[in-house]
Design goal:
single chain, 375 residues, alpha/beta, eight-stranded parallel beta barrel, 9 strands
């Protein structure tokens, strides 16, 4: 069974007609319910729901506090290689871009990890460009082994892997996987990824399932909002998360809501995603997925992220750079421009001021590293 069957189920569904048919009265009725059906969730993503965003945000805030308390989990990305074989026009790491390429040695990975750990971060997200020739599975495994004593939790955001490769990373200390489908619209996906290994839509779509079957602890999915209609991509992101929760109840599932950001090349998004649309996406996702994490990265500015922390977001990055290496200084080309440049300490202080509790780690993989059966 694959989530692709769910996408197939909506292949002939007229999204435009349904979204246009939703009325404010429909939305008001839906908001009286505690649990939502798939189409009720889609209705909350419609234009007709926008007048109710404030009420949706209040309800989402209550649900978030009920399931997560006042905790806000903090992590930072760690870019170790920017070589890429894919041709995504919306990414500075694309092989078609003329940028300085860096691939950290294992000694450099270890030194960079120590610099990050000194900031108090204990939850790291390791990222590479999509190049199997450079960032091989063996290299990624060696990088994890080099840093696992510095962090209590290690996530990976890299190219899709086989089950065997995921198993190898998990055995070495990886407990989280983040992977964006970019867009769930299959035709649009292929238009954007011609000429590179990323063109394999199904292999990418099924990556979270492969990792979950191998015992990964957390999985985060998402679409890059702006590549296709954000209402439809948000809808399938939510359905994907719900499918993973149902089929893999032991896995902690989160959704990410990234918007396109400026990069080294000129790229015009297919759809504009306003602040209001992004708020609607976050609160509708919370109402549909009460117990799922919601991640908001430094693609968004500090004011927006602080506001979102009150009504649905449960995970934030801090002290971020998207270049390689990203914490040792220098002028390497970033994958995209960040909007929130606050340090880890500044993010923590602002969260505390709002009555939220910054949590630097919610898990310690070292506790189960020597006990595979407990993973």
């Amino acid at each position: 069974m694959s989530f692709y069957q769910t996408i197939e189920r909506y292949r002939s569904f007229d999204f435009a007609a349904y979204l246009a048919s939703v009325t404010e009265r429909n939305v008001a009725t839906i908001l009286e319910r505690d649990r939502l059906t798939e189409l009720e969730y889609l209705a909350l993503l419609s234009d007709a729901a926008q007048p109710q965003i404030e009420f949706m945000a209040q309800k989402a805030g209550v649900l978030t506090r009920r399931h997560f308390g006042n905790a806000m989990f903090i992590f930072t990305p760690f870019y170790i290689s920017n070589y890429c074989d894919s041709v995504c026009p919306y990414c500075s790491f694309s092989r078609r871009q003329s940028i300085e390429r860096r691939h950290l040695s294992i000694d450099e990975v270890r030194a960079e990890a120590k610099r990050i750990a000194e900031k108090g971060i204990r939850h790291i997200l390791v990222l590479t460009g999509e190049s199997r020739n450079k960032a091989t599975s063996a290299y990624c495994a060696a990088a994890v082994e080099a840093i696992r004593d510095s962090f209590s939790s290690i996530g990976m955001e890299i190219y899709p892997m086989t089950e065997e490769e995921y198993r190898g990373l998990i055995e070495r200390g990886v407990d989280g996987l983040t992977i964006f489908q970019e867009t769930y619209h299959e035709e649009r996906y292929h238009v954007l990824h011609q000429g590179g290994p990323k063109d394999n839509y199904r292999f990418r779509l099924d990556a979270p399932e492969r990792a979950a079957r191998q015992g990964i602890r957390t999985v985060s999915v998402g679409a890059l909002l702006g590549l296709h209609d954000p209402r439809i991509d948000s809808f399938f992101t939510g359905l994907h998360a719900a499918w993973l929760q149902r089929d893999f109840p032991s896995v902690e599932v989160s959704v990410c809501v990234p918007r396109l950001r400026p990069l080294v090349a000129e790229f015009v998004p297919a759809f504009d995603v306003s602040d209001r649309r992004l708020v609607q996406t976050i609160v509708a996702s919370r109402l549909f997925l009460p117990s799922a994490g919601i991640t908001l990265s430094t693609r968004e500015n500090a004011v927006f992220r602080d506001a979102a922390a009150r009504f649905g977001v449960t995970r934030m990055s801090a002290g971020v750079s998207t270049a390689v290496p990203n914490h040792a200084g220098g002028d390497a080309t970033p994958q995209f421009e960040i909007a929130d440049g606050r340090s880890v300490g500044e993010v923590k202080e602002d969260l505390l001021r709002m009555g939220l509790q910054p949590v630097m780690h919610d898990w310690n993989s070292a506790l189960t590293r020597n006990y595979p059966s407990a993973a």
